[in-house]
Specification:
Blueprint (H helix, E strand, L loop, with lengths): L2 H8 L3 H6 L14 E3 L48 E5 L5 E3 L1 H6 L3 E8 L13 E10 L1 H7 L7 E14 L2 E12 H4 L5 E6 L2 E2 L9 E3 L12 E7 L6 H5 L2 E7 L5 E7 L6 E10 L2 E9 L3 E8 L5 E2 L1 E2 L10 E7 L5 E11 L11 H4 L12 E6 L1
Parallel strand pairs: 2-11
Antiparallel strand pairs: 1-14, 2-3, 4-5, 5-8, 6-7, 6-11, 8-9, 8-10, 12-13, 14-15, 15-19, 16-17, 16-20, 18-19, 20-21
The structure holds the ligand Nc1nc2c(c(=O)[nH]1)N[C@H]1C(S)=C(S)[C@@H](COP(=O)(O)O)O[C@H]1N2 and molybdenum atom (MO).
The site of molybdenum atom (MO) has 6 residues, from loops.
Length: about 375
């Protein structure tokens, strides 16, 4: 039996894992390793959002108490006694499910790196990302049980959180909501999630129940779920049609500009050099790559040739980031630049920051260009 399978089957908790002799998730774990922080780690404004500090990245799984959280309308208190998940709209059998009903259904896990689409969009927001093992029940069988009617094309996920919105002088109180096409919602990887890293889903991350949509940006993963509603029109609420809309100028071969405004959707190929360490005079660059099935990651130091990194073979979960490292022999004293680029299994390369694709984007969401980092070797 592979060690990994053993760990999985033995059901060790994360804490157990970290204390166990097979601490596969911890890195770096090498004795005498010293951190050389990147010189450009932006000072994140103090917040309760638990943004990831890349300099401190030392585990494949992000512990719950270090996982970031984003809430646009505050964090609603939800009373478990009266909480129900409503599945309604254009369905044959509307459902009202208690949390016990949901927990009694088949259980499914996914290790998924959840990234806010605003992450790396501007210099002060770089830690809106974390990797967790999410557990819950698959969404598709519930939608099938409800029986989506033939004219149903849109699945809207409503949260319990409510905010004031104003549009064309109309004031509205709206629940946070995001939608998916029926086809996307029926993907068998989507979970109604009530557990995170083997513990009850923490309230800031959406307890009692949230959607986990592996392969999508964080905005799709609606927290504090209240209602799932099927409709026969596209939904254009704030978080589908106004915010979280990427504006991009694309140049056609004939020189004509086409302006695209698109709703933030699936994750994109991305990587980052997270930190540099040394043991004595042996330097190592660690990083992560995510957003698409990763084939390789390459690093360029001081603008030199791209060198292939080593990807940790233990961490092959489809929707999870890959942790990688590159040994850096004999760096000279002084400041250096380090940049990584991920390459996916279809041969797509993470675009450079100055590529037309990245510079043609005028909004900060879905920023996935290469990030050049600076480090000072003393
Ligand atoms: N109900 C609700 N769900 C939500 C949000 C929200 O404000 N309300 N924020 C979204 C955004 S923008 C992100 S990035 C993720 C963050 O998930 P986390 O807080 O568990 O990290 O939740 C998403 N789901
Ligand atoms: Mo987000």
């Amino acid at each position: 039996m592979e060690r990994r399978d053993f760990l999985r089957r033995s059901g060790l908790t994360l804490t157990g894992l970290l204390l166990s002799p097979w601490a596969v998730y911890a890195f770096p774990s090498r004795e005498g390793e010293v951190l050389i922080p990147f010189a450009d780690q932006p000072p994140e404004p103090p917040s309760e959002r638990g943004l990831l500090d890349w300099n401190e990245l030392d585990s494949f799984i992000t512990p719950n108490d270090k996982f970031f959280n984003v809430s646009h309308y505050g964090k609603p208190e939800v009373d478990l006694e009266t909480w129900r998940l409503e599945v309604s709209g254009l369905v044959e059998n509307p459902l009202m499910l208690t949390i016990e009903d949901i927990k009694a259904r088949p259980r499914q896990d996914v290790t998924f790196t959840l990234e806010c689409s605003g992450n790396h969009g501007f210099p002060t927001f770089t830690g809106g990302i974390g990797n967790a093992k999410w557990s819950g029940t698959p969404l598709a069988p519930i939608l099938k049980e409800a029986g989506i009617q033939e004219n149903g094309i849109e699945v809207i996920f409503f949260g319990h959180d409510v905010g004031e919105e104003e549009r064309r002088d109309v004031k509205m109180r709206q629940n946070f909501a995001r939608s998916m096409s029926v086809e996307d919602a029926l993907e068998d990887t989507n979970l109604l999630c009530y557990e995170m890293n083997g513990e009850p889903l923490p309230h800031p991350n959406g307890a009692p129940l949230r959607l986990i949509a592996p392969g999508w940006y964080g905005i799709a993963c609606v927290k504090w779920l209240k209602r799932i509603e099927i409709r026969d029109t596209r939904f254009m609420g704030r978080f589908m049609g106004r915010d979280y809309v990427t504006m991009r100028e694309e140049k056609r071969p004939d020189g004509e500009s086409v302006w695209m405004e698109t709703s933030v959707g699936r994750t994109q190929l991305k990587s980052l050099a997270a930190k540099v360490t040394r043991i004595d005079d042996k330097y190592r660059i660690y990083g992560a790559a995510w957003g698409a099935p990763i084939a390789t990651v390459e690093v360029s130091i001081d603008g030199g040739t791209w060198q292939k990194v080593t990807i940790d073979p233990e961490e092959d979960a489809e929707f999870a980031w890959k942790i990688w490292h590159l040994d850096w022999s004999n760096p000279s004293r002084g400041e250096h630049t380090v940049v990584s680029r991920a390459i996916d299994t279809n041969g797509n390369i993470q675009p450079a920051a100055d590529s037309d694709y990245i510079t043609g984007k005028y909004t900060y969401w879905e920023s996935h260009g290469q990030v050049v980092r600076r480090v000072n070797i003393e």
